Amino acid sequence: MKKEKPAIKTLGQLKASGYQSCTIREEMRRNLINRIQEGKSVFEGIHGYENTVIPQIERAILAGHNINFLGLRGQAKTRMARLLVQLLDEWLPIVAGSEINDDPFDPLSKFARNLVADLADQTPIDWLHRTERFTEKLATPDVSISDLIGDVDPIKASRLKASYAEEEALHFGLVPRSHRGIFVINELPDLAPRIQVSLFNILQEGDVQIRGFKFRFPLDIYFIFTANPEDYTSRGAIITPLKDRIQSQIFTHYPEDIETAKKITRQEVRLHRDGLKIEMPSLLEDLIEQIAIEARQSEFVDEKSGVSARLSISAYESVVSAVEQRLLRHKSKSGRARITDIYAAIPAIVGKVELVYEGEQEGAGSVAVKLIGAAMKTLASSYFPGIDHLKRKVPNDSKRRYQDIVSWFESGGQLELLADSDDKSWKKALDQVDGLKKAVAGTDGDEYLLMELLIHVLSEYLVVDKKLIHGNYLFQDQLYSALKGIGGN
Q1: Is 379 helix (H, G, I), strand (E, B) or coil?
Q2: Exposure of 394 by Cβ count < 10 A (0-12 exposed, 13-18 middle, 19+ buried)?
Q3: Distance between CA atoms of 138 and 239, rounded to whole angstroms?
Q4: Is residue 314 exposed (0-12), middle (13-18) or buried (19+ Cβ within 10 Å)?
Q5: What is residue 481's predicted lDDT score, i.e. its pLDDT?
Q6: pTM over 0.85, yes/no
Q7: Same domain assignment for residues 26 and 169
């Protein structure tokens, strides 16, 4: 909750209050130390970085370093940069009317210097909230030096009857206007090399020069950059002299385990259920996160591009929407996700992966289906003992566990799972498969959900044939399916 703006209105009152100015690095360092000592985190909502990235950020701030976050897309780089605004004091005094947040005790602009010289202790003071001391710029190839640093403004010069050689004729860019604040440049490699050169002085000497005029601004700015390592070889590069001036390079990463990934996804999903009660079983959540993991390891997906956490978030929302759609058709108020609902996430998956040549040849939809199948097989090993032995020719006890199911299909049994069937019909369909319920007995988890998963996994191991027909899934014996295909019936 934002506190009220301080009542101090003039420079004299500010002096009398005992206020002392400090640099932004000193300010952030002081506030970080206080938070650490109080056991408070700056990075609420950032999961999986507690022992890796966050300690590095804290050390960089304590050292007064500018930071470059290096990492693939969807690794919370921009979010962490935005959270650092919490390390600023809530209110900052500036010379009222200043364009560059002039410090009343050490004004930089000619406007502020003249005002303080003329009014002394009667100089009007305004207060800037910390949220107004954060500037963010997405680097694009068309960003100019004028955008970042500034340029001569002919209209302003004409209005003030000022010479183009005078400071009054200048229009300040984003960097000078971020004086005494945090300035973030996202996707730094996308900046043209000549624009990156313009940042040299700011980072090293803390000053900026505009159009070669004979004045210097010793700006006080905390810089944060973000970059995708892929950019070094494709769209652009951080030029070496600039990289050398950014004191701390911090690598981000994807969640290292499914539980962390699930925590992130639950936090980020945006759902509008309109009074419907929709349950997302933990097994489905695991499956969604495993799909993202499989995508990051897939031969069809460009690993340099990365697979954003947004894949899991969008997939989760798509699965919930599939359940919602089913409930609306049955005029029901509550329901839970099923394994087949995961295929509703295919549109979310294809939009979140960058395919290599082999993936393009397979087709985005086909790759998404393969990723889902791979995720099912990976999870199955922890639920169904010996499931990965099914393709081996040597009989063993593990294979015998599933023999009744296989025999039922071999004898002509067919299982049709309808996407829109109600819970009663869905369970009835699964119950008809001999040995299915027995195969999941004693396994920790929802019985019918595990039965459905096992059927899908058997199809992934090519023990059972699976066909998608008008949005519904038909499972039958492989040989029967092949013969039927030959016969044309």
Answers
A1: helix
A2: exposed
A3: 18
A4: buried
A5: 57
A6: yes
A7: yes
Indicate whether 189 belongs to any domain.
yes
Boundary of a domain, candidates 235, 251, 267: 251
Does residue 173 come out as left (phi exceeding 0), alpha (psi in the -120 to 50 range) or beta? beta
Are the CB atoms for 175 and 149 separated by under 8 Å?
yes
Query: Both 63 and 173 in a single domain?
Result: yes
The answer to whether residues 215 and 319 belong to one domain is no
Q: What is the CATH number of the domain that holds 244?
A: 3.40.50.300
In-domain check, residue 1 = no
Quote the domain boundaries for residue 15.
Answer: 11-251
What is the widest separation between alpha-carbon atoms in the chain? 99
Asked whether residue 2 is domain-assigned, the answer is no
Burial of 224 (0-12, 13-18, 19+ CB in 10 A): buried
Report, as ranges of residue numbers, the positions in the chain whose pLDDT lies below 50.
232-234, 486, 489
Cα distance between the two ends of the chain: 69
Provide CB contacts within 8 A for 190, sequence distance 6+.
139, 140, 141, 231, 235, 236
Count of alpha carbons within 13 angstroms of residue 8, beta-carbon side: 24
pLDDT, one tens digit per residue, over 84-107 is: 999 999 999 999 999 999 999 999
CA–CA gap between residue 466 and residue 474 (Å, rounded): 6
Q: What is the DSSP string of 315-376?
A: HHHHHHHHHHHHHHHHT-SEEE--GGGGGGGHHHHHTS--B-HHHHHH-HHHHHHHHHHHHH
